[in-house]
Design a protein that fits this description.
By secondary structure, this protein is an alpha/beta fold. The chain is built from twelve helices and 13 strands. Bound molecules: pyridoxal-5'-phosphate.
């Protein structure tokens, strides 16, 4: 599609957008705020306000502990089943609870235990550092000589399939990658890479934090073993909302995670002194789940299911191409470089633009009510959340970045880093 780079054309794209009405399902407290950070923290759905009020007043306030027998106990499974529809998993394969980091820890240990004698964990140099720290900690904790092998990136943006193939061998227990890279938005061919790992006899553990709710996935059909992912990014579940984990059904009773809390036990309320694991997905629970933040995920996921993941992806691709047209015309001539793949089939739902002054440009944007985020050393990351991002927002945000850079307005801002960038 050829985009005209005018505000009128942006307005026309918004008028033609079949998902445009979904924006009204979210709280837009400041209509002038240009929010391009839904990939870090999604907006608040209108329905969540009422739901949390009901949970607090009717459920917790009135029902008190009876709530556990009135839906709370099953909520991690029931909401998990809804997320399963977004990521192409079967009912009973997705569970909510704990953070992404904690879930990654649980599933990675379970996988390594299931591949004794294979000391290698394979990941990549574009992965989110928290994931790599978790693997390093596991290797140290298990004390069985596990090593972490990182597939390099030749250009800081992509990973080559040949480099993945080279890293996998009969020593590999686990291949664990983030499907959409947090900086560059590079997106793996998840099905092909999973098949490569299986051919080497390894298990696969995918981090879907930047994919769930933005990119269609077919975990069951693609034979994926294990996965984890965030609910506060594209799923709009709220700050620190509990993450999800996925375990392929055939593997559920073969694997065991290391946190043997009572919720993972066969019969928690028998209070037996020796642990026996529950059957199925239940054994991947730990302790009592955080009910208030967990229940907030439910109305948020309903909105995405109503919009449909295929339509969301189509809009995300078109908005990304639109953003790139503006960036090529306005920003590349001002010293920006593209930090994301050119090809939309290899890209998730954000675009990174690199500039030596990216941090100060980011600060100047914040002062003008444009919210991107900054990822060291020089990435300005612009997130597209197709459920509520408008073409008009993208147009105005890029116009402001152009002005800040062309007029060197960023020189007025300090290079001193804020705690959260
Ligand atoms: C956001 C993100 C996380 C976050 O993990 P938490 O445990 O919620 O802090 C993990 N992995 C990836 C790839 C992410 O993008």
């Amino acid at each position: 599609m050829n985009f005209e780079l005018t505000p009128e054309f942006a307005a026309q794209l918004d008028a033609q957008d079949e998902l445009a009405a979904f924006r009204e399902k979210f709280v837009v407290a400041d209509p002038d705020l240009l929010y391009l950070d839904g990939n870090s923290l999604g907006r608040l759905p209108q329905a969540t306000r009422g739901r949390l009020q009901e949970v607090i007043e009717q459920q917790w306030g009135q029902r008190l502990i009876r709530g556990w027998n009135e839906g709370w106990l099953e909520a991690p499974h029931n909401i998990g089943d809804k997320i399963a529809q977004l990521i192409g998993a079967q009912p009973g394969e997705v569970l909510l609870g704990d953070s992404t980091s904690a879930n990654l820890f649980k599933l990675a240990v379970a996988a390594l235990k299931a591949r004794p004698g294979r000391p290698k964990i394979v990941s990549d140099a574009l992965n989110f550092p928290s994931d790599l720290y978790i693997f390093q900690g596991i290797a140290e904790m298990l004390g069985q000589g596990h090593t972490l092998k990182l597939i390099p990136s030749r250009d800081g943006i992509h990973i080559q399939p040949a480099d993945v193939a080279e890293a996998l061998d009969e020593q590999t227990a686990l291949l664990s990658l983030t499907h959409v890279a947090f900086k560059s938005a590079f997106m793996y061919d998840l099905q092909a890479i999973t098949a490569q790992a299986h051919a080497a006899g390894a298990l696969t553990l995918w981090d879907l934090s930047h994919s769930a709710g933005a990119v269609p996935l077919h975990l069951s059909a693609w034979g994926v073993d294990l996965a984890v992912g965030c609910t506060y990014k594209y799923l709009n579940g709220g700050p620190g909302a509990p993450a999800f984990l996925y375990v392929r059904r055939e593997l559920q009773n073969q694997l065991m995670q290391p946190i043997w809390g009572w919720f993972a036990a066969k019969n928690p309320f028998a209070f037996e002194l020796d642990f026996a694991p529950a059957e199925g997905l239940e054994r991947f629970r730990g302790g009592t789940p955080p009910m208030l933040s967990l229940l907030a995920i439910d109305p948020a996921v309903d909105i995405l299911l109503e919009a449909g993941i295929e339509r969301l992806r189509a809009k995300s691709v078109q908005q990304s191409e639109y953003l790139l047209s503006l960036a090529r015309a306005w920003l590349l001539p001002l010293g920006f470089r593209l930090g994301s793949p050119e090809d939309s089939r290899q890209r998730g739902s954000h675009i990174s633009l690199r500039h030596p002054e990216a941090y100060r440009i980011n600060r100047a944007m914040l002062a003008r009510s444009v919210i991107p985020d900054f990822r060291a050393p020089d990435n300005l990351r612009l997130g597209i959340a197709p459920i509520y991002t408008t073409y008009g927002e993208i147009y105005r945000a890029l116009e402001i970045i152009r002005q800040i850079t062309a007029e060197k307005i960023y020189l007025q801002y300090s290079n001193e880093r804020l705690p959260v960038t």
